Amino acid sequence: MNRLADYHIHTPRCGHASGTMEQYVEQALSLGLAEIGFSDHLFLYWLPREKREARLAMPEEQLPEYVESVLRLRERYPQIPIRLGIEADYIAGREDDLRMALGDYPWDYVYGSVHFIGEWGFDDPKHVDRYANEDIDALYRRYFELVKRGAASGIFDVMAHLDLVKKFGHRAKADPTPLYREVAAALAQAGVAVEVSTAGLRKPVGEIYPGPDLLAECARQGVPVSMASDSHSPGEVGKDYDRALAALAAAGYREVARFQGRRRTAISLDGIVM
Ligand code: ZN
Ligand code: FE
Ligand code: FE
Ligand code: ZN
Known about the structure:
It is a single chain. The termini are close together. A seven-stranded parallel beta sheet has the order 1-2-3-4-7-8-9. Strands 5-6 form a two-stranded antiparallel ribbon. The chain has one domain (5-268): TIM Barrel (Alpha-Beta Barrel). The protein is built from seven helices and eleven strands. The protein has 274 residues and is of the alpha/beta class. Helix 4 packs parallel to helix 5 (177-190) and helix 6 crosses helix 7. One fe (iii) ion (FE) binds at residues 87, 113, 115, 160-161.
């Protein structure tokens, strides 16, 4: 047992993940993780039903069954806490629709993700061509503005993949330090955590989300941090956690967050190795 959790785990309901939920749990057990939490993609609540692409998120009618299956897994695996989470898109101006979509399920935590800038699903490989027409610095500002608004919305416990805009390797030309300061301040002010996600290592950018400078700024401003793989297949659970621990240490973090019933507690990182 190593006291660490992996809170960002998908299921095939989202249309782009593989494996059974049991396989994800078994992988967590075999790594000796202390907790696992599912956080599949919430249905695309802000779009009319006919525009909700099945390859991006679960259909709306599967949400109750998703919740039930997580709760049922707890009975099957009493040896590891299994948390109920969800990954929800933040769409500015649609906060009430999102609150409604989340309903009153017994969430342990809700992830806020910015995957859309306007109508553009900018992290979708299908739409990557559009970066060529963008002013990258302006794009970074628009992206992080949405992250800040999402954090301030009060809807989320954790912001997912905080610097996702870098996914395909597009880097700001201007110094992003002022932006990073603003984002960290917004998270700190809102009491929202950030995740250290190893998923970025498996993307063209080849870097943990958030990158070292942004993570250090979060640490400096006292933003709590959780750990995650953003697994879309069972073998990705807990992946590269040694590198995540190194990134946390370099940024100055001494503890990580755990979630239960939307309440956050802190676990010391002292003496944990992977
Ligand atoms: Zn996904
Ligand atoms: Fe995401
Ligand atoms: Fe995810
Ligand atoms: Zn994700």
